[in-house]
Automatic annotation (TrEMBL):
Residues 44-388 form the Leucine-binding protein domain. Gene3D superfamilies: 3.40.50.2300. This is Amino acid/amide ABC transporter substrate-binding protein, HAAT family. InterPro entries: BCAA_transport, Leu-bd, Peripla_BP_I, TAT_signal, TAT_signal_bac_arc. GO terms for biological process: amino acid transport. It comes from Tistlia consotensis USBA 355. Pfam families: Peripla_BP_6. The keyword Iron does not apply.
Length: 441
């Protein structure tokens, strides 16, 4: 697809959104402090979100809603998109799944005429909503973190021009984890006791894709997969799996299942007779419930995220504003996703001369072109889309330049009464790796 590099048809005023285009490489936090009274007052631009506001993922769904609302408020305070304020609308995806997700997005388009859908994640194939978006001719930004998105975009880039994944695909958790371990060893922070790695997964696509990525590349990093086991979830009794681990102790245990209560139970049952293994867990330890259940047993656990608020000046400022707005217990890491996604889309729309309503395919193609060419430094790091798959690049696995990729953050719980320390990658790290208390050096 040839990009339209012509100038926007509408030139923003000095007091309109972004004051020209100077904030393209600026931070969302900076934008929030630039209000000089230029509040938007034109016709509202409807923006939609389909999120799990009820049922088992509601804790994240509410934060996705908060993140989009906060982004709209701050952008409107700056003048909106060329003087037009953003007006958010929400539909509940409940238990998620393709059918429910598609119904929610369809309601946003049919009832509210949204110009864009800015989601967090929805469990499903990661490739169903895109057809609704393509048929309507609007723009879609989501954080499903799935390789299914990438494969779909590559299959027909002209049809799916308006669908963007704001973070890297879950596949990158696999090679990123192996590269992280390699870094620990090269810096002398960790020495493996043997070459064995156990991988434990659940049956879902997300957990399986990450586990398979680790399995496929482990040998190239000198690891032997000694156990590759799928567990049925939810799971509260880890005895059979722990028996296998204790019979043939690995140097590393990687669990790609992600429910926090299940993972907390693993640690509670692991600690009375631990193996001399690093323990890495997917996503669950980032949720406060994990630490609340596991307590001291959580100390030493490693986990990672491909997208989350950084613990730097920009991320900390966002966290403070977010918690002031939504409460001290609000989950700013989840809210950061649609927050950044909305800023990326709104910036691109301003540069393109405005957003397009459903059916305005020509204008939204211009917006999508701007998104593909942008580099946005937000609270989650750098968003830069791989033009072939319209998914964010990851640093340091895909690119070695931190200004050109979203950081694959590795964190360690070192005191369960506090938040985890960000131990990699540099230059974003704010803490150092410590040997887990159950490993005897």
């Amino acid at each position: 697809m040839k990009k339209d590099l012509s100038a926007p048809s509408v030139i923003p005023s000095r007091r309109a959104f972004l004051k020209g285009a100077g904030a393209l490489t600026g931070s969302a936090a900076l934008l929030a402090t630039m209000n000089d009274g230029a509040r938007a007052a034109g016709d509202p631009i409807p923006v939609g979100q389909a999120a799990p506001l009820t049922d088992f993922a509601a804790a994240d769904g509410v934060e996705f809603k908060n993140g989009l609302e906060m982004a709209c408020e701050e952008i409107n305070a700056l003048g909106g998109i060329l003087g037009r304020p953003l007006e958010p609308h929400f539909e509940d995806t409940k238990q998620m799944g393709d059918a429910t997700n598609v119904q929610a997005v369809t309601r946003l388009i049919d009832r509210h005429g949204v110009h864009a859908v800015i989601n967090g994640y929805n469990i499903g194939s990661g490739a169903a909503i895109q057809d609704v978006i393509a048929d309507s001719g609007i723009v879609y930004v989501h954080y499903d973190t799935t390789i299914g998105h990438n494969n779909l975009i590559k299959s027909d880039p002209k049809r799916y021009y308006g669908s963007f994944q704001g973070d890297p695909a879950e596949y990158w958790y696999g090679p990123g984890f192996l590269k992280f371990l390699q870094g620990l060893e090269e810096r002398g922070e960790y020495k493996r006791g043997n070459d064995k790695m156990a991988v434990i997964l659940s049956a879902g696509v997300y957990a399986a894709n990450i586990a398979n990525a680790i399995k496929e590349q482990a040998a190239s990093y000198g690891w032997q997969i000694s156990l590759f086991e799928t567990v049925n979830v939810p799971i509260s009794e880890w005895g059979p799996t722990l028996a296998k681990l204790r019979e043939d102790p690995p140097a590393v245990i990687a669990i790609t299942h992600f429910l926090p209560a299940d993972l907390a139970q693993f640690m509670l049952q692991f600690m009375p007779n631990p193996t001399q293994s690093l323990v890495y867990m997917q996503y669950g330890p980032s949720i406060p419930a994990f630490r609340e259940i596991a307590k001291e047993a959580a100390n030493g656990v490693l986990y990672a995220t491909l997208v989350g608020a950084l613990q730097d000046e920009i991320g900390n400022d966002f966290e403070a504003r977010y918690k002031k707005r939504f409460g001290e217990n609000a989950g700013h890491n989840s809210g950061a996703q649609p927050y950044d996604g909305c800023h990326v889309w709104a910036t691109a729309a301003a540069l393109a001369g405005g957003s397009g309503e459903p059916g305005d395919d020509d204008q939204n193609r211009k917006v999508a072109d701007r998104m593909r060419s942008m580099i946005w430094r937000g609270v989650t790091g750098t968003t830069r889309f791989d033009p072939e798959v319209q998914s964010a690049y990851t640093y340091p696995t895909q690119t070695k330049d931190p200004s050109l990729g979203m950081p694959h953050q590795f964190l360690q719980i070192q005191d369960y009464t506090k938040g985890a320390g960000l131990i990699a990658p540099p230059p974003y790290d704010t803490a150092s790796f410590v040997m887990p208390p159950w490993i005897k050096v």
